[in-house]
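Hi R.,

As promised, here are both runs. First protein below:
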Amino acid sequence: MHETPENRPPKRAVPEAPPVASTELHEVCFGAGGAQFQVTKEPITSDNIGAALSVIEKCFSLKSDVEAAKLTYERFIAGPRRYHSEFSGTEVELLSYDLYRVGDEPAAVGGAYKLLNEPNRIYMGWLGVVPDFRKHQNPGAKPLSEVVLDDAIALARKRGETGIAAVAEDTPANRNTHAYYERHGFKVEKTFERNGELDRLYVLELRDTASKEGAEASREHSGVDVGDQLGQTAVLTDRNKEHEVSMHELLLHGTPFHIGRMHGELLAPLIGDVVQVYMDLFAALGGGDRESIRVSAQAFADRIEKFDPRYMEEIRGIASGSGIDLRDILAINSRTEILTSLLASSKECTLFCFAHEGILAQTWDWLRRLEGKTVLLRIRHDDGHTVLTMTEPGIVGKIGINSAGLGVGLNILSSSERAEGVPVHVLLRSALDARSWDEAHDRLTKSNIGTNSAITLADDQGRCMTYEYKGDGLKVLQPRAGVLV
């Protein structure tokens, strides 16, 4: 990725104070074997420019890229940070250029600049992660590239911007860069020629303003699918009619990470409330402090990743969008598994299915502190398949129906047996993502879930089954006279 607008010599110089060299504790990153390393972020200065360029050299193969990055960093350090670019024909302002260290090792660089003739948008500049730090053996870790992206998003929001842009060469050799942007919700705004080569301009829209406007339109025109109008985004609607419990509805579409991030952004305060409710409950039941719970939750990351990495991507997106620690989001997604390890028994929901009539219904008998905090996620996939699930903010799914005519319900079973596997809420969402009865049945019979539960699957063709999991065993129950209770 190149930044030619800022690599041109300035036409005028404006004296500017160099950045102050301060170090900021940023994240906790998990490495191989569960080792923990602090990730620190520091502005690029004359003291650490050599370390920053060592990252560039490991990430960019062309000598011209290293030279261009060096020019950018020198301009950022000594000024002027605002200048006229002959290439873009506009004023350019260098906003932020940072070095990230894992422990003491230079691990990544990130930056941002603004073309002053493009309102409401900043550009990412010189994003690079040293190959040794691009992957973590622990799948619960937040990739360092996402840490850098989150910082760019935070900077854009702080400035009141509504978009982030990035330029990448349109070549097969750059496919990993393209995949990175597309996985995180960027769209190609245009392809253009530069110096005889094609470049792609990627743009990520930060949808807060559009989402709020869309939600208002949805309230006024309930027949309009605002999600279709906004494309790959999310819309938050309040359902609070007379005699009904208040419930939010999110219309979600996009990549798994993007779906999660929009979920996290729009419901961040509620997700924080849900996390606190469960942390209080876990502690009251003897589960220990928050760090102890995080260790328990972290164990489920690997199970989710192996089952289907898309759901782990969505969970990472929720953490990114909400600004809440990834391990806390894992904890609420595996809350049933953590609770059943602390409880001898649990009395929750009542479910019934009248198969011939195509009726599946249940109660959700749970904590009073969660009243008014439930959410309807309406998730539309690229092939048109749509999921509608009632869940708790921050959790990828629970009970619901889909456009293939399938529905799922849940009961928790009391048992002394313990199982190790996929959290039941992830498995429920997986069943709803199935396009057919056979696909859902296959997922439910070949997946080992992490607790003792009964999942009921029904469809609009008169079929109904309950999958009863106890320990490592599975028993499938058929309806009697078309009824399951």
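And here is the second one, sequence first, then its structure tokens:
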Amino acid sequence: MLTAMPLRRLIATALSVMVLGACAVKPPEPLTDSQVADVATAFFSEQVRSLLVHRYWNSESHGQRAIYCVSSRDAEKIGSELVPDLRRNLTTSELEQARDFLATPVGRAFMDRQVYNTPRLALSASEMAALRDFLNTPVGFKLLDPATAARYADAYDAKVAERLDQCGRTYQPIEVDLAVGQAVARTHEDIICTRPRLHYPADAKRKRQFGKAVVRLWINTKGIVYLTLLTQSTGVPLLDEAADSAVRDMHCVPYNDGGELVKSTALQPISFELD
């Protein structure tokens, strides 16, 4: 025979079940090194690479060997090597928020663009809104703060110095030819790229500024320009920026070395001439 349970007792029983259920929930699993490496790769690898290549270009003590060490390193490898530095400088909560963002469709698209698996095309309006929402959070702001990337570049610089001799044993000087409007490989076959779409800054035109820049570009196995370095300046910062931007937007056929797609590098001249 069923008997009615007093309301007070019923509420107490329900609360006890809820408490027991809450106690049974397992704490979240700690982030694995692989997950932290994904965060490092997405937010810092390419920034660290670019900062160090520009630093080494102006360094008498490092030079081209160090540039080779960094430019030839895969973004994922740089990310995995930055794991200890991220664990020291970011809280568990910050790393978890970054991981959760990268797990979203927008986060995955952001990751692919950051490591140059896909061209850095403009995001859709909805993607931009979602990305902006994350970047406006404290952790998003911290991850994209240039000072944060500079700190990790300093840390990675020490790692490069440790293996500089090893890089030197496999290093071969880069010999390139210059061709107007077309990047040329250092070997017998040309690197086929789209011609740079040059935008002549209006302010530079108005001031009658002109000159020639030379930009070194690095191309990955997908034919995407993933790194650039200004090796000859026009003497006008605005024109130099326009030259670098034009080269970054070039698309290339991946370099084929005996049937194997490999990374390649070349020089691209850019001329700004007044009519």
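A quick note on the second one: Residues 222 and 254 are 6 Å apart (CA to CA). Let me know what you think.

Best,
J.
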